[in-house]
Amino acid sequence: MDTHNTQKPGTKAAARSSMTARVIGFVVAAVIVIAAIVSFAVIRSRSSASHSSSPATSTSAPAGKSSARSTVKLGNGKILVIIFSSKNAIYGRSKPAKIGNTMRIADMIVADTGADKYEIVPAQDYTGAYQSIVDRAQKEQDSNARPAIKNPLPDVSQYSTVFVGSPVWWGEYPMVVRTFLDKEDLNGKTVIPFATSEGSGLGNFQDQLRQQYPKATIRDGFYAEGLQAAQAKPDVDHWLRGLGLMKH
Ligand SMILES: Cc1cc2nc3c(=O)[nH]c(=O)nc-3n(C[C@H](O)[C@H](O)[C@H](O)COP(=O)(O)O)c2cc1C
């Protein structure tokens, strides 16, 4: 005797209605699963579309701003990284680099803080053999020159914190950076130097900024040895965390 069969035998109508109920249940479950898959796909495609329009990679000027802003790569709009870096004038390298040493540090600061970035591009590029660049740079320094900058200057008024970084040349900021510093007023802002060099640390960057902008708050700067710049991320993170400027 089958002790597991609890249904009363002989009621064909009852058997048919239980089968119909099972089919309806199956169809409803299938519809719910399909609807869930479709809505997940729609949400994903919408969110990836909004991420791809993130302003961090935009190089165009926001509506209503002057065209001078077009050379600034946009981040969070509160912190600005000013950078001059030469791919050709790197101590200890016979060939130009793809990315200058100090530019590597600038990119790490941008990634950590969400800052905007403005690159100082000299009207006359520093190209050619290392020694010829060294000679030119020395002449510029001896004559206290202010070499011209090719690209429009950024509108610094909206930034409260400005990093100013470059290689150390003869213990100082390269004269093309001095051109920038003379043209822009960073008084009242927090200004933070950074550098790469091959033995001079930050050079006189801190003093130069203090002299140039007596009403700015000059905070602790950062430097890395030029040829070690690519490995400097942990040190950059540590420095920025100490300044309270890490984004996450
Ligand atoms: C003209 C010139 C002057 C330099 N003067 C110094 C210096 O005074 N002290 C120092 O440690 N390194 C000096 N260096 C080496 C650079 O600071 C170093 O190679 C730097 O990492 C280059 O960075 P960049 O690739 O961002 O231009 C000098 C290099 C050049 C081309």
Features:
38% helix, seven-stranded mixed beta sheet, alpha/beta, single chain, elongated, disordered N terminus, 7 strands, binds flavin mononucleotide, 2 domains, 6 helices, Rossmann fold, 248 residues
Number of strands: 7
Coarse structural class: alpha/beta
Global shape: elongated
Distance between the termini: 70 Å
Q: What are the secondary-structure elements, in order, as H or E?
A: HEEHEHEHEHEEH
Average pLDDT for all residues: 80
Question: What percent strand?
Answer: 5-15%
Q: What CATH architecture of the largest domain do you see? A: 3-Layer(aba) Sandwich
Q: Can you describe this structure?
A:
By secondary structure, the chain is of the alpha/beta class. The protein folds into two domains: 1-53; 56-243, Rossmann fold (3-Layer(aba) Sandwich). It has helices spanning 12-52, 101-113, 130-142, 175-183, 205-212, 233-243, and strands spanning 72-73, 79-83, 116-119, 161-167, 190-197, 217-218, 222-225. Strands 1, 2, 3, 4, 5, 6 and 7 form a seven-stranded mixed β-sheet that branches. α5 (205-212) links the parallel β5 and β6. α2 (101-113) crosses α6 (233-243). It is elongated. The termini are far apart. The site of flavin mononucleotide has 23 residues, from α2, α3 and β5. Flavin mononucleotide binds at residues 85-86, 89-91, 100-103, 133-134, 137, 167-171, 196-200, 226.
What is the gist of this entry?
The protein is α/β, with parallel strands linked by helices and 248 residues long. The chain is 38% helix and 13% strand.
Fold topology:
Layout: H1 12-52, E1 72-73, E2 79-83, H2 101-113, E3 116-119, H3 130-142, E4 161-167, H4 175-183, E5 190-197, H5 205-212, E6 217-218, E7 222-225, H6 233-243
Parallel strand pairs: 2-3, 2-4, 4-5, 5-6, 5-7
Antiparallel strand pairs: 1-3
Helix pairs in contact: 2-6
Bound molecules: flavin mononucleotide.
The site of flavin mononucleotide has 23 residues, from helix 2, helix 3 and strand 5.
